[in-house]
Design brief:
elongated, 415 residues, six-stranded mixed beta barrel, 53% helix
């Protein structure tokens, strides 16, 4: 099948050695600019996706996908509530919890914290605390032994280690003839966990559910039930459906509401970085405009000859659209290849650069996440590819239109 002559001429103009080497140089710069912009966009979006995934993993390692809590901070018949919630096909596991405020004291040091009573075996099914234990063991939380697992920063602020005893002061007091006396209980530190987020590491302590019920005088009640789903992204829909299933006076909330600020901030930052880095592709597209304008000026005699041979203006326009699109396509291919390769190997490239120059991009003392995570999503790659290709095509319109308006007589007058 014979190819259209517009395509053949456009391809020939792209690969032919130009009389004006400066045009070739500008064309190469445009190609590299588009490639650099596309690669930068792919890598940055992958890193932002990685940060979002890492934050989500760390938060949901402590929090729950869905939480059913009593209206008055007490859920009396929690086994029935857990059984009703477990009937939903998307619910994988349930676990009761008691949550209240407390104050820990050790050798004159005092720190407030959120005290969470858990059943270690059931908690493993809805959270990943066991993976975050740095010393001690979660299995040492046994009913009646009053053990406690502290966050790493909370333990450091109290200057306490595994095996030592701390005093937990509950805000609910005990009424005596002398007045209301705060309830005190000595707890043995049986473990220390480190999630990697200051909010939890400095302000969360775990005790056994039975000890929490006794300390906060809840009887057989709990604060609520935590749920884990098959797909965490379905949490809002499942929470709405559970409202019609659970027969109890309770609040039902999901992780997208309880930690919305974290993910909204990351999403806004990702969007802004996408807009800012898109300007790199736009600048490369402007370079492509100048390249084609100079190419049109350089090829005026050829355009005039084609016109005298019967080529229509839209055919001349198609020649230079093809030439510019091919330059953009090559740059786009280089950018996609480089960006995908770097995004997939960023865990190797970044440490190499750090060791080579002796720098640390993300210090452990400052940032929650000290390594650059990367999560390549092909939807982002195709989105960047589409935008870059559209910009490259738009950049060819004016020079091609100008080529189509070349007057053959004027162009050949001095040839």
């Amino acid at each position: 099948m014979a190819l259209p002559y517009e395509l053949l001429i456009g391809l020939r103009y792209t690969r032919a050695k130009r009389r004006n080497h400066f045009i070739s140089f500008i064309s190469a710069i445009s190609m590299l600019g588009i490639g650099l912009g596309v690669a930068a966009l792919i890598v940055v979006l992958s890193v932002m996706n990685g940060f979002q995934k890492e934050l989500r993993t760390r938060i949901l390692g402590v929090a729950s996908h869905i939480q059913i809590s009593g209206i008055n901070s007490t859920l009396a018949d929690w086994p029935a509530v857990a059984a009703q919630a477990a009937k939903h096909p998307a619910v994988r596991a349930t676990a009761p919890y008691v949550q209240a405020q407390g104050m820990f004291s050790f050798e004159g040091g005092v720190r407030g914290a959120l005290v969470r009573g858990i059943l270690p075996d059931q908690e493993d099914r809805v959270a990943d605390f066991r993976k975050t234990i740095k010393s001690g063991s979660l299995d040492d939380l046994k009913p009646g032994e009053f053990g406690v697992v502290l966050g790493a920063d909370l333990a450091r602020l109290l200057r306490v280690f595994v095996g030592e005893k701390v005093t937990l002061i509950a805000p609910q007091g005990t009424v005596t003839p002398a007045g209301v006396v705060p309830r005190l209980k000595s707890f043995k530190v049986v473990g220390i966990f480190e999630v990697g987020m200051y909010e939890y590491d400095s302000g969360l302590a775990l005790i056994h559910l039975a000890d929490a019920q006794k300390l906060y005088q809840l009887g057989d009640g709990v604060s609520g039930v935590r749920l884990k789903l098959d797909d965490l992204f379905h949490a809002p829909r499942v929470a709405r459906e559970l409202a019609g299933i659970v027969q109890a006076d309770a609040w039902i909330s999901d992780w997208t509401k309880s930690h919305a600020n974290f993910f909204r901030a990351v999403q806004i930052e990702k969007t802004m970085m996408f807009i800012i880095l898109s300007l790199i592709v736009a600048v490369a597209a402007f370079n492509l405009v100048s390249t084609l304008v100079m190419a049109v000026t350089d090829k005026q005699a050829d355009i005039a000859i084609l016109r005298t041979l019967g080529a229509r203006p839209r055919s001349i326009m198609a020649v230079f659209v093809i030439q510019g699109a091919l330059v953009g396509f090559i740059g786009l291919g280089l950018g996609i290849a480089g960006g995908v390769a770097l995004a997939l190997n960023i865990d190797v490239v970044v440490p190499f650069i750090q060791n080579l120059f002796g720098v640390q991009f993300l210090s452990k003392e400052v940032y929650y996440i000290s390594d650059l995570p990367s999560d390549l999503q092909w939807g982002d790659v195709w989105g960047v590819t589409g935008i870059a290709f559209v910009l490259a095509l738009l950049a060819t319109i004016y020079p091609s239109w100008r080529a189509a308006r070349v007057n053959p007589a004027e162009a050949l007058r001095y040839e």
